[in-house]
Every structure is written in structure tokens, then in C-alpha cells.
Amino acid sequence: MTFDLGVLAAYVPSLLHGFIDTIWLCASSSLLACALGILLTIGRRRGARPLVVLIDAYVTLTLGLPLLVLLYVSFYVLPDFGVLLPAAVVGVLTLAIYYAPYVAQVIQAAIDAVPKGTVEAGIAIGMSPAAIARRIVAPQALPLLLPTMTGLMIGLLKDSALLSVISVHEFMFAAKSVVSDTYAPLEVYFVVALVYWAATAALNHATRTWEHRIARTHAQGVASGR
């Protein structure tokens, strides 16, 4: 068996288009998952008892199911009940619904890790809840939040490859098409693995850089406030 990346030269645009679609899908899913995760956190902390029970049931159900099962249910079962959506929309919504409980748990853990004394101090000097959240909780919780959140977003990026099973045109779907044309699975999947690794490494590096900047800015703010 030979290893010749030259056979992929004519398919670079197709693979690139598939990867761009993957980035768009992941960005959309991440934003929706974060928004839903924030709403779940607020609902758990401030909602009425029935709402908290409903949120807990949703979180428990979602965390207990594989993503692939949710994809199959969303794409193949819901149309029987009149819910028919494009494959890309199903993929984005399913990823968001699946990852939102994880996001909520990460946010909750980061908030709980903020020393209660700092919040009580803000209340004592008459700060509003919004000001406490913005000036006390957020600067302390965000550095704690970023590492785990980065892991979730990397997991979402890798799990997006599962969307190919419902015919969403993304990187893995494009790679399968190239394999069927070239009969060169070794070269194609080597490139796919390399691109996924590079993308996750770049995301991890960018987040760590952001984390260090936030920590440095917070430290400078604390020093200037003394």
C-alpha cells in the first residue's frame, strides 16, 4: 500500500468547503449551547420549584443519552410527528441541546467557586446584583470557567463529525465523499485527523492566551484598587 497525498490535490476545495461548514456549524452550536446553558443556570438558581424540576429532568435525560441517539431521534423520529427541519438545522440544534447541560454545570461550578465573602462585601457596600455579577463574580469565575469550557468546545468540535450520519455537509461528510471517489482512505483520513488536531490545538492555545490575559488584567485591577 502506497501513501500518496497527491491524489487529494483535486479535492482540496471540497475538503476545505467541508471544514468551513464544520466551523460554521460548531460556532452556531456553541453560541446556542452557551445561551441555553446560561438560561438553565439562571432557572436553577432563581426559578420556581416546578421550573427547577423541569430543568433537572431535562439535564438528567440529556446527560444520560449518547449524542448519536439524539441525532437519530431528531432527524428520523421527529418528522413522524410533523417536525421536519433541514439536516444542518437539526445538527446545530441537537449539538446545542446536548451540550447546554454541560455548559450549565460548568457555569454553576465556577460561580460556586467564587468566595462568598467577596459577594457579601459587595452587598454590604450597596452594589446592585448586576454590578456584583459584573465586577465581582465574573472576573473571578471566568478564569475558572475557561479551561473546562474549552474542553467542552473541543468535544463539540470532534462530535460534529457525527453529523455526517444524518447527511449534514461538514468535514467528515466531505471526506467520505472524497474516499468514495479516490479509494484512498489512508490519505484522506490522515488529512482529516491532522486538520482536527490542528483545529483543537489552535482553540486550546487561543483560550489559554485569553485566560492568561484575563488573569493578568484582574490582578492589575486588584493591585490598583489597593
TrEMBL record:
It is found in: Cell inner membrane; Cell membrane. GO terms for biological process: amino acid transport. PROSITE patterns: ABC_TM1. Keywords: Amino-acid transport, Cell membrane, Membrane, Transmembrane, Transmembrane helix, Transport. GO terms for molecular function: transmembrane transporter activity. It is a multi-pass membrane protein. Its main location: membrane. InterPro entries: AA_ABC_transptr_permease_3TM (IPR010065), ArtM/GltK/GlnP/TcyL/YhdX-like (IPR043429), MetI-like (IPR000515), MetI-like_sf (IPR035906). It comes from the Bacteria. The chain crosses the membrane at residues 22-42, 51-75, 81-100, 144-168, 188-206. Signal peptide: none annotated. Pfam families: BPD_transp_1 (PF00528). Residues 19-207 form the ABC transmembrane type-1 domain. GO terms for cellular component: ATP-binding cassette (ABC) transporter complex. Belongs to the binding-protein-dependent transport system permease family. HisMQ subfamily. This is Polar amino acid transport system permease protein. It comes from Paraburkholderia lycopersici.
